[in-house]
Amino acid sequence: MDFRLSEEERAFVAEVTAFLDEEARHAEAHDFMAPDREADSMLADSPARRAFNKRMGARGYLGMSWDGVYGGSARPGIYEYLLNEELAGRGAPLIGKGVGCIGKTLIRHGSEKLKAEFLPQILSADVEFALGYSEPNAGSDLAALKLRATRADGGWVLDGQKTFTTSAHFADWYWVAARTDPNVPKHKGISVFLIPMDHPGLTIQEIKTMGDHRTNAVFFDNVEVGDDYLVGEVNKGWTYVCEALDFERFTFFTVNPIITKFRVLLDLLKRTERGGRCVVDDPLIAQQIGRLAADVEAAKMLQRRVIVAASKGDVPAVEAAMYKLFSTQLGQRIADFALDALGPQGLLSHGADGAPDDGKWEHSYRATILDTIGGGSSEVQKNIIARRGLGLPLN
Question: Which of 87, 227, 288, 307 has its CA 20 to 30 A from that of 95?
């Protein structure tokens, strides 16, 4: 696979780099550029981060792969990949679920009304979305969801619960999967709706996670939704959800943070001594570093397969699943190795005296567990690879 960048692509990277260098001098850059944070750095969950996204929109960086008729510039998907990698390297908010999951799914399946209402807002970063998929008894088995959508005059009424909705406390709109037909096989009775997050029938409760990230439970009590906010066709939602998750993995799981994290750890270990000698001189430590270095290179190649598929106009389902599975587990392996190599000091948390990298590795150990769950658990990725990639039957 030839992944050398063209002259135009290299020029684009230079342009984005110059833009981010300029942004780094902004008074609030400490908020929207945070390379030492874990996955929460990608969210536009503060006024400064939303303002940064609006400046990206003004530069034409949002929706670059969309067709011109929808306000995009019809650039190949490689440009969104290059943008996201530069953003991820700075710890800045990524182009997000609005451009990928929501926008691209609306372009493929949404009504003209939904396209006209939401696509311009996505391009200008005037709207943030939350994804309403997981439920208390329907996490990895998403098709088992039970949030009920009942037919009503001119629309639907939704009752039930969602859980682990990460953006619910700051999003403007809710992209929700609900059961519209309980009498058909579970994959065939699901529909997708768009609901304003300030709907009086929604109640949001915070869920604290072991990685210090906030997520939420959302309760639906007689939430009325008009037919014009149904996405695509009734009972075709499973297809839309799967496509949206594929776009989410493509958009969110960049490789630059893994590369950066590995380099930061290697630099730290070169400065760490134990028993009068540098820890990297230990043959066992050196062997483990070599294995992780090879894994980082493998992650880069898997991510590039995702980009190649997306740039051809395909939905990178299997490629995204392979990369998501491998990269998130690699993140865990790097964090595990960091604590082993650093010894007891590695367990010190942020603010503790003598904590290596101010507790980065203790936090990473907790936070990377969540990465293997969000966007579809590792078990889900294995099923996608088995069924779609290898053609294996369901049990």
Answer: 227
